[in-house]
Amino acid sequence: MxxxxxxxxxxxxxxxxxxxxxxxxxxxxxxxxxxxPNGSGKTTLMNLMTGLIRPSRGHIRIxxxxxxxxxxxxxxxxxxxxxxxLPKGLSGYQFVYSYLMLFGYDATTCDELTWRAIDLVGLRxxxxxxxxxxxxxxxxxxxxxxxxxxxxxxxxxxxxxxGLDPLVRAETxxxxxxxxxxxxxxxxxxxxxxxxxxxxxQVILMSGGYVIxxxxxxxxxxxxxxxxxxxxxxxxxxxxxxxxVFREDHVVEVRVHNxxxxxxxxxxxxxxxxxxxxxxALDGIRIESVAPIDDDVNSVYEYLIxxxxxxx
Amino acid sequence: xxxxxIAAGVAFEPQKEARVAxxxxxxxxxxxxxxxxxxxxxxxxxRDVTCSFTGRTVGLLGPNGAGKSTxxxxxxxxxxxxxxxxxxxxxxxxxxxKKIRALIGYMPENDAFISNMTAVSFIRLMAELSxxxxxxxxxxxxxxxxxxxxxxxxxxKLGAYSLGMKQLAxxxxxxxxxxxxxxxxxxxxGLDPxxxxxxxxxxxxxxxxxxMHIVMCSHLLRDVEETCExxxxxxxxxxxxxxxxxxxxxSNRRFLELELQGDSDLFVETVxxxxxxxxxxxxxxxxxxxxxxxxxxxIYRVASEQNVQLRRLNFRRDTLEDIFLKAMENxxxxx
Amino acid sequence: MAVNKRTYRGxxxxxxxxxxxxxxxxxxxxxxxxxxxxQTVFFVLCFFFPLLCLLGLYANSHLSxxxxxxxxAGPFLDINGSFFLVYLSVQSALSFILTAFIGPxxxxxxLANGALTLYLCRPLSxxxxxxxxxxxxxxxxxxxxxxxxxxxxxxxxxxxxxxWMANNIWLANAILWxxxxxxxxxxxxxxxxxxxxxxxxxxxxxxxxxxFVGAGFAQAVxxxxxxxxxYLFDISxxxxxxxxxxxxxxGDPPLPVAEAWIAVLVLAGLCLLLLMRKIKAAEVIR
Lengths: 312, 335, 286
Hints:
- The complex is a heterotrimer of chains A (about 300), B (about 325) and C (about 290).
- With about 300 residues, chain A is α/β, with parallel strands linked by helices.
- Chain A is built from eleven helices and 13 strands.
- In chain A, helix 3 packs across helix 4 and helix 3 packs parallel to helix 5 (about 135-150).
- The longest helix of chain A has 16 residues, at about 165-180.
- Chain A is elongated and about 75 Å long.
- Chain C has one domain (about 20-60, about 80-280).
- Helices cover about 70% and strands about 0% of the residues of chain C.
- The chains are: A alpha/beta (about 300), B alpha/beta (about 325), C mainly alpha (about 290).
- Chains A and B meet through helix 5, helix 6, helix 7, helix 10 and strand 13 of A and helix 6, helix 7, helix 11, strand 14 and helix 12 of B.
């Protein structure tokens, strides 16, 4: 049995409007982050995976199932939408419990699983209060609890960290990490790029309905061949550093940073450059900081997607 | 030069540490809280909060339920204080609530718009309700919309706006009447990275224009780090920490953060023999405390000898995340 | 050449007087009101009956108008309480329809997307907000109820002479207060419904229901319990009882006038209470 989530040339159109176009993906276990501007198709992709919408063309496979078999699929998949909607009048406990009953478990099992899920998100004290009285972060957490109460192997979460304070973020991320270690697929979408950097095993970048990059971030970056690596170095004698560095043939460009204490160096061979820095640092130039400004999701995002205007 | 600014910080009654910064003579604090307690229903949400701000930007942090929204709502006069006092620009919130509200611009966290109105009419309505004459209100509405970057979209109905545009419209209505205090509640909520950068840039510009004071409430520590000079952390209704980020940044030159490529174990061993402390950090980075007589050049010497690449190097101050986690810990340990 | 950098500018200039802020709400509502053609046309049609009355008054006094008919004609209208009762009844029905147009959309858009917080974080109290919304209805409805009514009164006064006016000044009073009771009640009811019911059409339907279903219910109660107290549920009847009292009509009203007044005031108070419950800047759910 395969352990991948596979998209085979999938497209989805809403009438004339494009949802996603020609998506080819094969998602392994671990934490995969879906990144892209609003309207790029992230929610569409997630809805396609859970079978909430059907693709206009192409096929989707989750392990050996297809999304149009919800009875089988949702025993294995847990989904948490981005919308802050809870049924009225239920307490947190009742919310999770009632959805568990749909799986056919008996009352004792439901109760056990409910408390287990509630403990995982840390809401035990508040479990019997009305969910409508919860703060935004607590509502997010109870919905998360509901999506993982039945021990799914695939978790599809649309902006799960939205509204959570820093402590709870860290705890939730630790939760995802432990699930990933057990071999689960955790697929989440997020706008907070530096967090995506820290937690993901894989990243899928989307824009305008197309998947424009996917894979491990470092690997994605190294595939973007046409851009050499940019490194920002702050030191006390930038001009001297510049002249030393310029002598190397792998250094493509050196720019003085705005504050006149930094150099932006572009090199096509970072390894050689760093070893060179070791020598230069001993020649009397005082290095204050070294930062590769490219090596993360943010720069890949900016390079591939750019900074579009909010008002179209 | 900016001596008064540094001296004017936060004076607050110690809960654990006494960090009383001398107040500037003659400068009325922007927000002055003394023993403020607020009770909602039968729960005491804010307990005995004593704090005063005079700086340009303050970040308000704290876990959910710490009382941040309640504090903001109390300052706006939505909830009455059950004990203590609060003054904004010298006016008491109990007796001069309307006067205070005329000076405040508020950008709420939740949706706040009228779907059937165009952005211009909406902002104009809000500006007129704040006391501007009709033509002036229209002028300033357009100015505010131009400033936040809503171009042609301003003539479209708010109901049709995307999330990012709604946030910008909320910001525009908060600044259109030229408030002296701007309260932002989760301004980058749900914004994608370019929109978030735009919002942060706007907040920084407004801060640097020196025309207003800003209180920003956010869960994203990065946002607060990039815009605020001071930070106040609330927990369970009390102030548990205050920092002046400028001061923090200026001090602490002995902490290094490194990212290595090469044999890190040998490197760590050698560096520790020099007297420095090492600890692993996030993302395969190394946190280093330089010993008294050790400089960066010495670290580089070790790297050069061992053919290790120092891919990343910077002096670290206690970033906001560490400060926040420490503040949470301290109060927990105190039970 | 100078480049004008786009920066933020504060404002520390003059402000409009605090008491007049609630009128801002009126101005903005009026703008949206007359965007609807149907509403505008209907509003104009509401003046049709007063105009007819005016012509009648004139014809009444200047009987020479009828000389072209070849006969001698006498005054055919008696300008007294009954005349104005008819006038009020017609105009009140029309104002009911107009309220059904305007009322439901007054408060619900503000509540639907959280805009109320923005209203109340300004130097505007809840009372001023309610007053502002009320004034939208009160001012518009006044134009078609007591304003033309008083015009008719004064026209008749100028036609009949000073003595008539002095004798009948109570009529003017009655017109004013009678109209006011009706339009205040309508305004409060529709505002309360607009605050509690999100969907405009539902709020409008509920407004109609309050009157018609209330009337039907009143009949049912009267039949079953063999009493007249059922009329307490029939709002239009209560108000017409009040009018009959004000306009000094003979005839036995089914309920004492005082009782009708009390019932109406209680209803208005109830609506106000319901309204204030919904007009809150920040909700706390326990």
